[in-house]
Every structure is written in C-alpha cells, then in structure tokens.
Amino acid sequence: MVKNKLNKTEKSVEAALIRGEYRPVSRAEFRSVAEAVLQRKKNTVLNIRVNSRDLVRLKQKAKKLHIPYQTFISEIIHRFAA
After folding, report:
1. Rounded to whole angstroms, how far apart are CA atoms 52 and 56?
2. Whole-structure pTM value
3. Which of 31, 42, 48, 59 has the fewest CB atoms below 10 angstroms from its CB?
4. What is the rounded distance in angstroms from the CA atom of residue 34 to the CA atom of residue 59?
C-alpha cells in the first residue's frame, strides 16, 4: 500500500472524517451544491482601472478575511450583480 503525505488541510479533513463530522447528502442536495459551484466558476478576465486608495483598502479588508484580494473583489462583484 502506498502512503501519501498529507498537507495540513488534508490532515484536518482526515481528522474530521474520523471524528464523524461529515454526513452523507442526498442526490438532490449534491446536485444543488454542484450547480452552485458551477455558477460561481470564473470564466472571464476583467481589466479595470481603480483608485489606488480604494485598492489599498480592498486589499486590507481581504487580508483581514484571510483571502486573496482578487477573490474578495470577485465576490463583491458577484454579490452586487446578483
């Protein structure tokens, strides 16, 4: 049997599985989640000019949330467009 080394995230998922923190989902729930993931897929590139102070503030807010600033900006656009 081949043993693979797990990274920190994979180890935490493995531990959660062992503790029974995950539960099976119905096909309908799985399809719903899969559809939501597909709807959030990023498939277009956007280049824009923004005020440098605004960008600094966005980067600071993203850092507080521990996410990349481009992901944060994309989420803002998604929520506003919805």
Report:
1. 6
2. 0.56
3. 48
4. 29
